[in-house]
Specification:
Acyl_CoA_acyltransferase, eight-stranded mixed β-sheet, Aminopeptidase, about 180 residues, alpha+beta, Ribosomal_N-acetyltransferase, 6 helices, globular
């Protein structure tokens, strides 16, 4: 797998997702511990993962990076639905279960948020988190995101309707936190 680091963190590096990475991504997103928190209730086969790579990863309106530690892929972080006119994007991320609780997601998200504000000129970054995903809620809140609202029974995940919590982070709040 390629080693072209785009952003370096304290414990992880972020690099472009390449076609060779599909062999890591497909089994990972089919793991219940990943698909449940990201709200994906159907399995993904090779062709669907390739379509995701071609249609989403290679799209100019998203930024998708692989999270690696010691050159080993452990997850992804992305800006989806970038609204260039409003200078806003939604962040999404996941870490493979064997690498949970080691600070990798926090390092990756902090680095990526900084990139969004410093390099993409974003004014606001949003995130959606399901009510049962307390770890992701804690991560977002720990780096300055504010819970802005709740969409009740927004999605059907794993046999139950789940509320979706919406978070937001304004550039000014980020700057006052890191300065």
């Amino acid at each position: 797998m390629p080693d072209s680091v785009f952003l370096s963190g304290d414990s992880v590096d972020l690099r472009p997702i390449e076609e060779d990475d599909l062999e890591f991504l497909r089994p990972a997103v089919n793991d219940r511990r990943i698909w449940r928190p990201i709200g994906r209730s159907r399995p993904v086969n090779r062709e669907q993962e390739r379509e995701f790579f071609e249609d989403v990863v290679c799209n100019d309106d998203t930024v998708n990076l692989l999270i690696v530690t010691d050159s080993t892929p452990i997850g992804t972080v992305a800006f989806n639905g970038i609204d260039w006119e409003a200078d806003r994007a939604e962040i999404g991320y996941w870490i493979a279960p064997d690498h949970h609780r080691q600070g990798y997601a926090t390092d990756a998200v902090e680095r990526f948020v900084t990139y969004g504000f410093d390099q993409l000129g974003l004014h606001k970054i949003t995130a959606r988190v399901f009510e049962f995903n307390e770890a992701s809620q804690r991560l977002l809140e720990s780096i300055g995101f504010t819970k802005e609202g709740i969409h009740r029974d927004e999605v059907f995940v794993d046999g139950d309707y789940q509320d979706t919590y919406w978070y937001g982070l304004l550039e000014a709040n980020w700057r006052s936190r890191v300065d």
